[in-house]
Design goal:
Structural class: mainly alpha
Oligomer: single chain
Radius of gyration: 20 Å
Number of strands: 0
Helix content: over 70%
Number of domains: 2
Shape: globular
Number of helices: 13
Length: about 400
């Protein structure tokens, strides 16, 4: 990634803020996207030898619980932090959260990662420290939205509140020894609902804007009854899955939601974006949402046959939908706000391909139990996110950009 100083300045100006002495603290996407990518790659590289039994993590929770927790409340929460703090400035017209406030949020997130990996403090204290980040993030995000009077976007903050509830429930399950399964379901459901809400807003909008300029013709359908019905059914299916994950009613709701999501995404003219991978990846990533619904619903209805393991559906959502959509949003937002052209370079396309293949292999590994495929999927995942950190990190951190030569 190379640009001139003036290019970067124009991108930063879109946030409506002054240039700060510490560039990395100028806007939320800068530190949180970089840290999310680093942690997504590093945590999985650590998890692979733990899963194989080669090493053990010193955390006060089980290795599997640590892996699940750090993917949800470490990596995914950091992406949400970067997105919310940056999008709120666009939603409200206010200057973005920056400087000392942003630094404190970053420290809260980092402290959570430290106490969850290392036995630095008692488990109860670790739970409080870990939960502090999302609580503070929601408080700051709600403050910005309420101050602007832009009430419509509070629903995003409410969904993040469900993620807080999931984290609290997760720690309660660890401390009481009652298990973390419901907490994990609630947290994954909150993230999928968030993707349904935000994806339904940005994907057709970005696609329509690009098609008008580059490929006139069929346009994405505007938000309508199908979209509303899909969101409502998604919420009902996820609520049923959280409470009663094994019933046939839940399975039917999940399958119905999956079908509606396929209808929904088919209305966004994604097949017309093949020339711009920065857009295409959003459509492909969103397709893992209905795939997860269909696999989980199928796992319930075919339970006696054991044709589809539950973990296949879970990884369609986590490695597929969450992984691809967050990486797509991180690349696009970083390019746009830093003043780079909104197009996917060869390197960016490589990390898209890596996370896509990793997601597919992880689903297949769940179905077959093949540890080799699981390892390859983990390495592909780590390569994608560490590739983002290496490629986009210098610009996010505010290192001086390379100057063009005459």
């Amino acid at each position: 990634m190379t640009t001139t100083t003036s290019d970067a300045g124009r991108g930063e100006a879109t946030l409506g803020k002054p240039v700060l002495a510490i560039p990395v603290l100028a806007a939320g996407f800068r530190p949180f996207f970089f840290l999310a990518a680093l942690w997504a790659g590093a945590a999985v590289l650590l998890w692979l030898p733990v899963y194989s039994g080669s090493i053990a993590v010193p955390a006060h929770i089980s290795p599997l619980d640590w892996h699940i927790h750090e993917m949800l409340f470490g990596y995914a929460a950091a992406v949400i932090g970067g997105f919310l703090l940056t999008a709120a400035a666009n939603w409200t017209g206010r200057a973005p959260v920056s400087g000392a406030t942003l630094a404190i949020l970053v420290l809260f997130w980092a402290a959570g990662r430290a106490v969850m990996l290392l036995p630095l403090v008692p488990p109860l204290a670790a739970a409080v420290i870990d939960c502090a980040f999302l609580v503070a993030l929601v408080a700051v995000g709600a403050r910005e939205i309420v101050a602007s009077g832009n009430w419509r976007n509070l629903r995003v903050v409410v969904v993040i509140g469900l993620l807080i509830a999931g984290n609290v429930l997760f720690h309660a399950g660890v401390l009481r020894g009652t298990g973390t399964e419901m907490a994990a379901r609630l947290s994954i459901a909150a993230l999928i609902l968030l993707i349904s809400l935000i994806g339904g807003r940005i994907i057709p909008t970005f696609t329509g804007n690009w098609l008008v300029k580059h490929n006139p013709g069929r346009m994405p359908a505007p938000f309508g009854r199908i979209d509303g019905a899909t969101v409502v059914l998604t919420a009902l299916a996820l609520a049923s899955w959280i409470a009663t994950p094994d019933t046939r009613v839940t399975g039917a709701l999940l399958i119905a939601a999956g079908v509606l999501h396929i209808v929904r995404v088919s209305r966004w003219a994604g097949y017309r974006t093949t020339k711009e991978r920065l857009l295409l990846v959003l459509h492909v990533g969103y397709l893992f949402v209905p795939l997860g619904f269909l696999l989980l619903g199928g796992a319930i209805w075919l339970d006696g046959i054991h044709a589809i393991p539950v973990s296949a559906g879970l990884h369609a959502w986590t490695a597929g939908a969450i992984g691809m959509m967050t990486l797509a949003v991180m690349t696009r937002a970083s390019l746009g706000h830093l003043g780079y052209p909104l197009t996917a370079s060869a390197g960016t396309q490589a990390i898209y391909l890596a996370v896509f293949v990793a997601a597919l292999l992880r689903i297949v590994a769940a179905c077959t139990g093949d540890h080799t495929l699981l390892t390859i999927a983990g390495l592909g995942w780590a390569g994608a996110f560490l590739g983002f950190a290496a490629s986009y990190g210098p610009a996010l951190l505010g290192w001086p950009p390379a100057k063009r030569t005459a």
